[in-house]
Design a protein that fits this description.
The structure is a homodimer of 514-residue chains. In chain A, α1 crosses α8 and α2 crosses α3. The model of chain A has no long low-confidence stretch (mean pLDDT 92). Among the domains of chain A are: 169 residues, Rossmann fold; 99 residues, ANL, C-terminal domain (GMP Synthetase, Chain A, domain 3), CATH 3.30.300. The first copy, chain A, has a 9-stranded mixed β-sheet, with helices on both faces. In chain A, strands 4-3-5-6-7 form a 5-stranded parallel β-sheet. Chain A has a 4-stranded antiparallel β-sheet with strand order 17-18-20-21. The first copy, chain A, has 514 residues and is of the alpha/beta class.
């Protein structure tokens, strides 16, 4: 299998249907593939040949999609860059993978000089923006216009398709090597679990560099249909794009869904085209799901749990699963073509309902980390990917996450899973969203601390939360301190940055990671 | 990916649901997998370790399924044997692959002595039947009962999963090597194209040794649900099984569909459970499709075109495609994860609507033929599987088969595609089914000859067929001679054996194959 294979099918089967819509530009599959084949010729001339790396640092656009496809068509390896990283972090990662080419748009062009300084192997910068190319960069459109289409190299199977850096927000970053088969296995498993017609119109609102959205791009390569890009997530931009382009498929993290459906302008838009809303990273509260179902009247919901190392899907909570309120609290079951286990510290499988680490095995599991043989061997020991997530499984195989192992709080010797406490707090009417962290405590080692975004501006008190929690949680899990904030710090992928929340409390102290 | 992977998911997610139903025996997924893991232990003791071959010669049964799964669980390679072959043919193929173990049921146990004589490497024969094990054979049930469950070896990816002999009816037989990834790619592509819920109840009525039904077994491994086995195709047995087990999914070749829906007893059965009828090998006439839609009121239809070397799917004509009468005459479009091309003798792609050879590329294409490096290189030259089928493609990518290249008739220098003539004849009300072959002709080299099974016993004359064809076909395609027969000779997979039909006409002569 190879990621560009679907492009050949779309040109054969529906050349004149719309492939991409972005910034007022509309291209058919025939036009897109012609541009990709030309750009691939240009990239080959720039040294992006078999297995060579080409990076992209850009907001979402149709050219982002074309650059990814052209790199693979040329036989290269894509390196989508997290634009929330600092310039030295980006330069270091590009130097590590030896990227020869970097594509940047107008929004990120200012980073180029710094990146060049820190990544001396970088030979060419391609400007994907709409403005004039900055000095020393090559024009994307001139590269396309100036080259004849070349044949697809059809590199695939177990060869590397992309390097995806992970961990930039939580610690030392690692480049995850994913093969063509890894990416396609995950997308095919998704499609087997969530039937998706070929007239899918998918909106890239989450960042394309992140594997969740990147995987939806791979899926689009298989299914066909139309891909619509907006530069970055913005609630009103999402609403407007859904209405204008009759979007059928949307992927967002629950935080983004919350911001979208709670937008004061939500009622101004026709959102009846939405059929499938895919979310990940955390379950949705019943309250939020109810508001989302009202806002998107024809949508069904799919939750995927996974991680970059899993290309990315491990479990799926299908639309049918969402009918059952108990199952909605889980992240679903092992997707087709994956196996999932919950194990103890000795990697032996635990009885159902006991909390342990979640392991995953299957054709979607990464090849390894770039140049990190020891960390690779550790993560994949015994043939299973060790996710670092804690959770448990019910009798029907539904997995519930309790926490990232490193976010677990140990208070008075008891394990407190922050997610469990968050799920209770989120049900309080005065709480819009929240995060629970461990902070240092002289008596308990760590104590449970809540960071709350109040709903509707009304104040929230610790006493209110305490009264609400005592009926619903064991005593040692009830928050003993709290703060309110206007918004939680989020990663580019929309995950809450608990490390940031913990930082002021732990300044000058080492926190034990379990 | 590995073929047994789904078994782990089913045991995790639905251990107490029904896995197999056969001959009055019903087993849950937990029971099936326990038996498979025990049998795998027995097979390992018998020498079926990594990559070793274990063959099975049997009518359909639940033990057939368990034997296949246990062989793969043990790390072995399955060799399903065509029971229509002669004993020397079977022995020769088993000797060629060096099979250590052979499973036989009661119906085929009589072959064992002959096979042992011709395949001296065969060490153990396992009896899968219900009667007492013949002398010198091991009891399947005793092997299961006498061994503890062993861990799944999880051999997979590009390693060989099975050797499937092809060509026994049309010439020199070749063992097709299919990997785990080949088989799973084809099944996943099917599922992406034809959404199939996990409560699928599939009826094995076509022979399990043939890759069409074997692939449906692999698909069942992914989806879960229930697999029902009847020993062999029989119209009334199919009807009875559909009613009794509320079968939802059925795979048959059109000949078998015709025999089933035209059964005089069809109205006695409740066939409302059928949701998906998958057929292959040839398109269905509108007349037959109409009768089938009446007989199976809730079924939708899927046509798959492929061959053993493609594990087996190349194209899919989806249920939606069946709504369009013009598309129903095609075999559909390239399935997800495959590419299809029509090429001339130089392997260059032809313009649309020009007839040429059909080539296929993708993760489903075989590893090669067992011990046939030259034939492998020839079949896969340029990275594409050369199917030997002639056909053409329309502007939307729909492929129509004109013929097997070797069944094409050259009459007076003109190419006549037998399938085209058959499709016209099949529309005549007096024709139940038919085959068109080339027979020697002093004037034309070959002439078009029709072999007709009359409908309802009324006689058919050449003049009637001639009058019907002249308005519908070019003059050189109209049959110039005919014969009537009670039934066409069929392969075990239900394909018409044109070689058999041609034999009396070509006795003592060499027929040029184009």
């Amino acid at each position: 299998m190879y990621v560009t294979q679907g492009l050949h099918r779309h040109v054969q089967q529906c050349p004149h249907e719309v492939s991409t819509v972005c910034a007022g530009r509309t291209r058919t599959h025939a036009q897109s593939v012609n541009r990709i084949a030309r750009l691939a010729g240009a990239l080959r001339d720039l040294g992006v040949t078999d297995g060579e790396r080409a990076a992209i640092l850009s907001l979402n656009s149709d050219r982002y999609s074309e650059f990814l496809a052209a790199t693979l068509w040329a036989g290269g390896v894509v390196v989508p860059v997290n634009f929330r990283w600092s310039v030295p972090e980006i330069a270091e990662s590009l130097a590590e993978v030896g990227a020869r080419v970097l594509a940047v748009d107008d929004a990120l062009a200012g980073y180029v000089d710094g990146i060049r300084a820190g990544s001396p192997g970088l030979q060419h910068v391609v400007h994907t923006g709409d403005g004039p190319p900055p000095d020393g960069t090559l024009s994307f459109e001139e590269l396309v216009a100036g080259h004849e289409p070349v044949d697809d190299v059809r590199r695939g199977g177990s060869e590397v398709a992309g390097v995806f850096y992970t961990g930039g927000t939580t610690g030392r970053s690692k480049g995850v090597l994913l093969s063509h088969d890894n990416l396609l296995t995950s997308s095919m498993a998704y499609l087997a679990g969530v039937p998706t017609p070929t007239d899918r119109v998918y909106l890239h609102a989450a960042p394309m560099f992140h594997l969740a959205d990147f995987s939806a791009w791979v899926t689009g390569g298989i299914v066909g249909g139309t891909q619509v890009m907006i530069p970055a997530f913005d609630p009103v931009a999402v609403l407007a794009a859904v209405q204008e382009h009759r979007v059928t498929d949307l992927l967002l993290v629950p935080t983004m869904i919350q911001l979208t459906v709670d937008s004061p302008r939500v009622d101004e838009f026709d959102l009846t085209s939405l059929r499938r809303v895919l979310y990940g990273a955390s379950p949705m509260s019943d309250a939020l799901l109810g508001r989302a179902m009202k806002a998107f009247p024809n949508a069904r919901y799919v939750q995927a749990y996974g991680m970059t190392e899993l290309a990315p899907i491990a479990t799926l909570l299908t639309p049918d699963d969402h009918e059952d309120p108990a199952r909605r609290r889980s992240v679903g079951r092992a997707a087709p073509c994956t196996e999932v286990r919950v194990v103890g510290p000795d990697d032996a499988e635990l009885p159902r309902r006991e909390v342990g680490e979640i392991l995953v095995r299957g054709g979607n599991v990464m090849l390894g980390y770039w140049n990190r043989p020891e960390e690779t061997a550790d993560a994949l020991r015994g043939g299973w990917m060790h996710t670092g997530d804690a959770g448990w499984m019910d009798d029907d195989g539904y997995v519930s996450l309790t926490d990232r192992l490193k976010d677990m709080i140990i208070s008075g010797g008891e394990n407190v899973y922050s997610v469990e406490v968050e799920n209770v707090l989120a049900q309080h009417p005065a709480v819009a969203t929240c995060a629970v962290i461990g902070v240092p405590d002289d008596t308990w080692g760590e104590r449970v601390h809540a960071v709350v975004v109040p709903a509707g501006g009304a104040p929230v008190t610790l006493e209110q939360l305490h009264d609400f929690c005592v009926d619903r949680l064991a005593g040692y899990k009830v928050p003993r301190s709290m703060e309110t904030v206007d918004a939680l710090p989020l990663s580019a992928a929309g995950k809450v940055l608990k490390r940031e929340l913990r930082k002021p409390y732990w300044a000058g102290q080492e926190r034990a990671v379990h």
